[in-house]
Structure formats: C-alpha cells, structure tokens
Amino acid sequence: MQDPRLRLLAAAFLSLAAFASTAGAVATLVWWLFFTPRTKALPRPGVLLSLVAMIAATALLSAWGGGPGLSYLIRMTALLLLATWVYAETAEGEVLGVAVWALGNRVGFEIGLIAEMGLTDLAVIRQEIEQMRVAMALKGIRPGVRSIVPLAVTLIVTQIRRADEIARLLMVRGYTIGGRICPRFEADPRDVLASIMAVIPVLLSTLPLRDVFILVG
Amino acid sequence: MRVDLEDLVFSRGSFTLRGSGTFGAGVHLVSGPVGSGKSTLALLLAELLRPGTGAVRRHDVLSALLLLQFPEHHITCPTVAEEVRSWGLAPDDVLLRADLLRRGDDDPFHLSRGELRRLTLACAVMRNPDLLMLDEPFSSLDCVAKREACRMIEGRGAGITIIFSHERAVLPRVDAVWEMEDGALTARGSVPDAIPSWRHAPPYLAYALREGARPENIRLSDAREALCRTRG
Question: Collapsing DSSP states into helix, strand and coil, what is residue B17?
C-alpha cells in the first residue's frame, strides 16, 4: 500500500479485529495473504522464528492451564504478521506526515516525532544486538541464559543514553514544541480496495455472527 | 603460523575489495586513507564477512581476535570490571595497564572513547591470541596514549599482529607494510626495504627519504636516527 494514511488505518482496523476474536484474526490472516507482499515483508527467519516461538510457548502454557491457547496463537500470529508488514512498508517520515495530516502541526507533530523516534530506535536496537553478537563471538562467549541479563542491561542503558543525546540535540537546535511540515501522499486505487476490505475482519469480530446467520436462515 | 589471502574479492554496492598475499608472524601495518577498505579487510580476515570469491586461510593459528574500530561496540557488560572479566581476564591487571585503576565499578559508557580504546586494546593484547587484528587502534588516543599503545603492540612476543590504520604520526615498530587504496591491497614488503615504495608514508619518513636518510623502521625515532646518521 502506497498511501501511509490508508496503510495505518487498515493496520488499526485489522489489529482491532485480530485482537478481538479468533474469527477476526483468521479474517486478518486472509487479508494479509491477499493485500501484502507476504513473505517479502517478513524479517529474517531467525528473528521471525524466535518471535513465533515465544508466542507458541505462551500459547502452550495457556492451553496447559486450560486457557484459550489456540485462539491466542492465531490472534498473536495475525498481529505479528501485521506488525512486520507495517514496519517493512513504512518509510522514514511517513508516520510524522500522517500524524501532522491528522492532528496538525502542534499535537500531530509531537506525536509523529515520538513515533518516528520509536521506529528509528527499532532499527538501532537491531543493529546494537548484532554488534553485541559480534562482540560476544570475538570474546568467545556463547549466547545463553547467563549472558542475557548483562546484555539486556547494556542495551537498556544504551537506549537511555541515546534518548538523552537526542533530547539534548533537539534542545541545542532550538526545538520546543510542534513543527511545520506539508506532507504529501500518493494513493493507489488498490489502496482504497484494501482499506475497504480491512473493514470485513472488524465486522466479523464485532458483529454477533450467530444472530446474522439466524436472520439469513 | 601464517594467514593467506587467496585472490580475495568482496563486493558491496559499488565498492569492491581485492587482495592477495601472506601475513606471516610479526607486526604488519595495513595503511591507507579513510574509506579505502581497511575495516572491510579486517572483518574478512576475522571471518566476520564472507568473501564473494577467494578465501582467507589460516595455518597454525589457534586463536584470533579482532579489535573493532569503535571500542563501544565491544561492550557487553554494565561495569568496567565485568567488561574486563567478559574477555576472560583479571580486572586488576588490565585496569592497571589501561591506566584505569579505580574505574572498575564505572559504567563503560561513562568512559571517554579514548579511555575505552585503552581498555579494549589492553584486553585484546593481554588475551594474546595467535592472530591479533587491530582496526584503527590509535584513533581517539592522545599522543601519550598512542605511544603506550605502540609499546603494547611491540611487546607482543609472538604471533601475527595486523594493524589497520590511517595514523601517520605515532606508529609502532613493524615488520611489513601493506597499503590499501580504493579497495586494492598491495604488499609493500618487509621493513626497511618497503619504506621507499610506501605511498602513504608519514611526512617525517618522506622527509627523511628526501634528505637521503634510510630509516631502519617507520617510527619517528627511526627517521630521526637515520637523519642524524646522514648528517653525522
């Protein structure tokens, strides 16, 4: 989807549907199959598999405890695929543009800037994890449970320092509140179709389907 | 003990690195301007990158270590002492050598880049691997610290030490000089024979050569001694 406004709107609808019910999650997965580049938008197999493994482990625990493990697995997998698609498709500055378009140059700019920083940091964190993996390999440390805690602490400290540095940089450049940008968006006719179709999972997850079928019958 | 580069080719975008040659025991200096491909070669030698064609072959090298260009990339622990322990070393010895005594409980990110460079360099040298690769070991260091770094490198008894650096002021005694330019690695040969053909030689060496002196090695003191000999 080219238009970030429609992309984010569709993502919001589909997230709501996938979170609300299993039927909504299944419909979201079907939408994902039809309207996204599918595997091209996925992260590296190692990253994806570790995320799926975490979801599967939680689902197993839930099912073991008598909870809705399978439903959790389907809903969270749908949300994960949706998130990876939106992350892969979103270009730098698009979220800021959408926020300013929706909420104006003051509140919208603030929210958009925070969201942009968050997205940028995801890439930075990924890079830092890779650097730490190299550093551990050079030191001859095998990744394991014992190394997770110091690594996590170092990563958190690094992120806090980075946030502090960015705040100082904004201050030095005279940033106070809000900003002025004129976002431009390019829409594709298929974007509109995909956005309309994204409403279906929401309807499936919110409407009492049994009643609808009774009416039809 | 040696490392062979066999028709190594590595490409990334429009940049292509090519190199062949053998790094034997001793200290090797790979010099060249910023962006010429020195760090990429270091990563290839450390087997952190895979060449497109050709190979890096290690012979009788049981342990290898690369000191990364940015010392903060080595940090994996929340305190300086723990960081030293993560290298498998005793903190007291390393902190003494890095001139960082009483900093053991500090956050490594609170050290300046120069202090961090001293720390990682001391760790790398004291680990004493068969193959030690140092990517820009003198960057962020003041002159005193650079000289101390040179002493550490010269103090390594055996093994292969490869220094990748654009440094042209404070250098250690080396056994061979290599040059990297636009991704092409060229062996200049053993020192002192390699010095006259070294294109990126430090200004003091170039001056000594112009004056007809023949320095024994690449340090400033070598150039000075050679000039003194020439001038009586």
Answer: strand
The predicted structure's pLDDT at residue A217: 45
Give per-residue pLDDT as tens, A191-200: 899 999 999 9
pTM equals 0.74
Side-chain-side CA neighbours of B66 within 13 Å: the count stands at 23
- At CB < 8 A and 24+ separation, what contacts does A26-31 make? A26/A74, A26/A78, A27/A200, A27/A201, A27/A204, A27/A205, A28/A78, A28/A82, A28/A201, A29/A74, A29/A77, A29/A78, A29/A81, A31/A194, A31/A197, A31/A198, A31/A200, A31/A201
Nearest alpha-carbon partner for B4 in B37, B51, B36, B39: B51
Cβ contacts of A113 within 8 Å, gap of 6 or more: A96, A179
Which of A136, A147, A157 is facing B107, going by the closest CB pair?
A157
Residue B171 CA to residue B181 CA, distance in Å, equals 19
Check whether the bond before A143 is cis (ω within 30° of 0). Answer: no
Considering only A143-157, B1-15, B188-202, which range has the smallest mean pLDDT? Answer: A143-157
Domain locations along chain A: 4-216
Instruction: Indicate the residue type of B138.
Output: F
Q: Report the relative pairing of strands B26-31 and B176-181 from DSSP bridges.
A: parallel
pLDDT at A26 over 70: yes
Residue B99 to residue A178: CA distance in whole angstroms: 47
- ipTM over cut 0.90: no
Place of tokens 């309309």: A196
Helix A109-139 and helix A94-103, axial crossing angle in degrees, nearest 10: 160
Distance from CA of A142 to the nearest CA of B (A): 11
Check residue A187 and give its pLDDT.
Answer: 81
Q: How far apart are CA A34 and CA A17, in angstroms?
A: 17
Using a CB–CB cutoff of 8 Å, tell me whether B107 touches chain A: yes
| SS3 of residue B117 by DSSP | helix
What H or E segment, with its residue span, contains residue B181? strand B176-181
For chain A, list residues whose CB is within 8 angstroms of any CB belonging to chain B: 131-132, 134-141, 147, 150-151, 153-154, 157-158, 161
| Whether the Cβ atoms of residue B27 and residue B175 lie closer than 8 Å to each other | yes
